Amino acid sequence: MRAEDPRLTTLSPETAATGLLPQLAHARNPGMALDLDWVAGVQANTSAIERRCATLGGRRSVKKDWQAAWLLKAISLIDLTTLSGDDTPGRVERLCAKARQPVRPDMLAALGMTGLTVGAVCVYHDMVETAVRCLEGSNIPVAAVSTGFPAGLSPWRLRLAEIGESVKAGAKEIDIVISRRHVLTGNWQALYDEMREMRAACGEAHVKAILATGELQTLRNVARASLVCMMAGADFIKTSTGKEAVNATLPVTLTMIRAIRDYQDRTGHKVGYKPAGGISKAKDALLYLALMKDELGAPWLQPDLMRFGASSLLGDIERQLEHHLTGAYSAGYRHALA
Ligand SMILES: O=C[C@H](O)COP(=O)(O)O
């Protein structure tokens, strides 16, 4: 991307701060009746999608102040995540401190920015209460992964109960996992019903549907599963748990965000997008943002419609920002957390 590219320069360093102000929330996606004809008609041209994505890096590069502004934007969209079996309250406390102040104050001041936070903190149910306590007064929501994450194979009533427990503990966002077998067997009614019930169990909490795209075999399946989850009322569709062999990719992203665009064109409802898993480099985050802006436009560059699910992306972004300000790269271990 050249600096003068009108599609991307609207996020100038000067307007970045404005772009980071809390946005008026759009109406939630209410969903619609399952339309099996629409689902059956969805196709994905894999080679065309892969071709487009393969050339994206060459056509999109952003430098200097513009890059810094885009990186600050990326930080505001991160669901800062820890999803490990060895998570402790201490780790979550440190993560929440980082969520409140993702960039060193002197660096932030030098970049002309104040009040920057990440989009949310994402944890397992057991850590929700700790995160909620640590984030009190910050307006940063806590997201809980739920429904037998990551495989989604625990008994159905326990999956629903888990959602209820996390909402009770204070989670404002619930990242559910879908049953991959419903997609692999083409049982769209079962996927729709499951998603619908999980959304209802979330109540006022927003629901992100994790498709685990690395296990869905084809981009056509990804497109159809995206559509069915949106019809069932998902607020966000999310690529991956971070635990599959293949997690977020650009081709999967293009497929899913085109499904979001089609859904909005036909229903008028906006659904958010969350690529997650394996996004750890600042330059990759910039590619995702460029694709979002090209395909969906500026409204999808706000935290109510775009998130990165990432445990280590923030550290690399900080390194790039420091390089932008000082001309030198600091060692990765200095940004070990996130
Ligand atoms: O939902 C978020 C992912 O689990 C984070 O994955 P990551 O650790 O590869 O960044």
UniProtKB/TrEMBL annotation:
The keyword Lyase applies. GO terms for cellular component: cytoplasm. It comes from the Bacteria. It is an enzyme of class 4 (lyase). Keywords: Lyase, Schiff base. It catalyses: 2-deoxy-D-ribose 5-phosphate = D-glyceraldehyde 3-phosphate + acetaldehyde. One of its GO terms (biological process) is carbohydrate catabolic process. One of its GO terms (molecular function) is deoxyribose-phosphate aldolase activity. Pathway: Carbohydrate degradation; 2-deoxy-D-ribose 1-phosphate degradation; D-glyceraldehyde 3-phosphate and acetaldehyde from 2-deoxy-alpha-D-ribose 1-phosphate: step 2/2. Its EC number is 4.1.2.4. Belongs to the DeoC/FbaB aldolase family. DeoC type 2 subfamily. PANTHER family: DEOXYRIBOSE-PHOSPHATE ALDOLASE. This is Deoxyribose-phosphate aldolase. It comes from Fuscovulum blasticum DSM 2131. The lineage of its organism: Bacteria, Pseudomonadati, Pseudomonadota, Alphaproteobacteria, Rhodobacterales.
